[in-house]
Sequence to fold (380 residues):
Amino acid sequence: MKVYLDNGATTMVAKEVLEEMLPYFTEKYGNASSLHKFGQEAKKALENSRKAIAKKINALPEEIIFTSGGTESINLAIKGIAYANQERGNHIITSKIEHPAVLKTCRELENNRFKVTYLNVDKEGLVKLDELKKAITSKTILVTIMHANNEIGTIQQIEEIGKICKEKNIFFHTDAVQSFSKVQIDVKKMNINLASFSSHKIHGPKGVGALYIKKGVKIKKQKYGGHQEFGLNAGTENIAGIVGFAKAATLMTEKDIKRMEKLRDNFINAVEKSIKDVKLNGSRKQRLCNNISFSFKFIEGESLLTHLDFEGIAVSTGSACASGSLEPSHVLLAIGLKHEIAHGTIRFTISKYTAEKEIEYTVAKLKKIVEKLRGISPLR
Ligand SMILES: *Cc1c(COP(=O)(O)O)cnc(C)c1O
Fold:
């Protein structure tokens, strides 16, 4: 049996998405900037896709620009705001559990005379709103807090954070790569000024993403060339990818989400019932419908991953982005896990295509492997 439970890392391109994309490689291959019919056909596909993404988050089409993925959107949002508002201030606030795309962009800005506050989170991974309020100074220009965490699935109180930023007249960016299509996003209601999205986490193709920029918010472009994407992201658009991304954004239904939540909770209950000395990471309530993160005491996550892989089950450890390094994940340390517990962490991320019997198979194998590894564990 082959069971893919690493949908937090990337997802399968949905059949409907691939079908929608195919003509744009062969028949409709025009450049959206060209004036002839081929170009206009591509341009139309581009603008229809823009409308579809905008609609999904209650934005206007002209507030969406397409990018090469979550990382590019995040870089453009953070650096774009920072360099466009240098006279106003040089202070940025983020959290300790952000994706490296955010953390490393902030580090780079620190090398360029910006100051960054990295907020602590509580045991469940939630940013403390009073700490956020206290961190704000007259120099603060941007708050960037992720919507949902990729490792532990915690969903932040985005609307409350948006409200605080609005009151203080500070720009608010959210990395919504993991939440997009799984959690309702309304940029107006949530007072979001900028939001980053990625296609390959929602059954779209890799190498495509979007950045929402509220009308009137000025950012400094980070790339020079053509006038594409309202002059903010130079380079010929990846039309096939963009069309696929827009299609993918329409596929998730409320029913799919409910079903995933049920599968997730069944998975959590089964593990807690059948395996001793496990700890669920993140929040039980404020949690992504597809995320299950467990720390298994007395075990190395890497060996657990390898044994699961041998049985056809694909998962990730608590340090997906730092694999190869012995440092445990910054997220797990930020929620207060000790090093040795953090090392025994496995993330399972399901998708709307995950079957119940795949979960049953995984829990059964997991139980056996954990017993076996604990039997020979020097950590015990
Ligand atoms: C995957 C991911 C990103 C990066 O997106 P890419 O499209 O792979 O560049 C950023 N933030 C979060 C939370 C992610 O899960």
